[in-house]
Give the backbone structure.
Amino acid sequence: MIHKVQKKPKSINGKRMLSKCYYLRYRYGEMLVDKWKSLKVTQKEVADKLADEFRKEWEAEQAGLLPPKTLRDGVKKPLSEHLEDFLTDLKQRQKAGRNDEGLIKYRGRIKRLMKGCGWRTVGNVTADSFILWRNRQTGFAPATLNDYLDAANVFFNALVKMERIPHNPLRSVVKVQERGKEVRKRRALSDAEFARLLAVAPPYRGMVYHLAGRSGLRRQEMGNLRWADVHLTAERPFVAARASTTKNGKEGFVPLMADVREALEKFKPANAQPGELVFQKGIPRADVLRQDLEAAGIAYQDEEGRYVDFHSLRHTWGTFLQVNGVTQREAMELMRHQDERLTSKIYTDTHHLRLFEKVEALPALEKGSHIGSQISGISGKILTKRDINDHENSVSELVESDAVCAVLTPPDTGGKVASPRGFEPRSLE
């Protein structure tokens, strides 16, 4: 073990000199090399005292009697400083999202929680304070409340990895139930409705709606689409969604239908450059889309409370694929989903499935068949309930005849039997 308080030698302009302040030179436990710690004082007595305190802390940490200094400092440090360090780290690791959307979301969510829950330091953060805040948010949808919890968990889990806090204080908080409580439910447009929308919308907006409703491109992807991403002259025309614009950060490809390709060819300026945006005027706002829907005679919200907004055009694409016989796996690829349940349950509007036509096309039962068939006759023919009743009546009539009685009478009884009931005679008199 090495534990020495001394001034650290250093070289200035080629001359070897000693530092003005004292340092602790130490090598404790299983350390392989000496370490230097600045004590930031010029008096030897004070430096010795600080060095002894440092050694006591180190030994207490090794014995498990004291948390590491990083944790002790982390608990005292303002939560706002932790947040800025976390956001800076996201930026450096290129996890900030498109146009720093991730940074904006985390900063907004965490700051709102800090204010609403009264969090100033990590020591103030408790599961109970979050739950009490959540219970007061009557205007938030369940999905939004869960999004706040997710953001907080990402933040505190990052602090754990940075060894600033011992554990995530919200690790025991359970999410609220989302199923059946969605605030905004979307619906898909039928082919007739979609055609009316394209007919009434001005050419620019009509092209936006047309491409979105027949490719499934999201609003962000549409707004960042460049002519270099639109391959109209390829053997099989397609649109490429760049990784920097997609939701999952992966590049995607969407084949173009013939009518969409023709519409894009007419829409494309003769002098369009590859780096230019396809929709330079931007994507129509919600109020503009609502006006176009009204002009087309399409309800913004139907009698079931379902909405038609811009993202509904992606629902329209997903439903269009299912209605027209595209297989589940193919539709999943065209929608660029990682989970097939999104394709089949969320983005397929069952109101547009041709259920009546499918049932009417089912084959009918063959004539003469009867689902009430229960037993087989002697010949193996399946008998219905009516056949069974007729069979019982005919047997009863036969049993009452002399011919049948003779056959059923044992040879040693002299032909004397009791009156029959059903299929078998009574016991002999």
Observations:
- DSSP finds 17 helices and ten strands in the chain.
- The longest helix spans residues 142-161.
- Confidence is low (pLDDT under 50) at residues 401-409, 415-429.
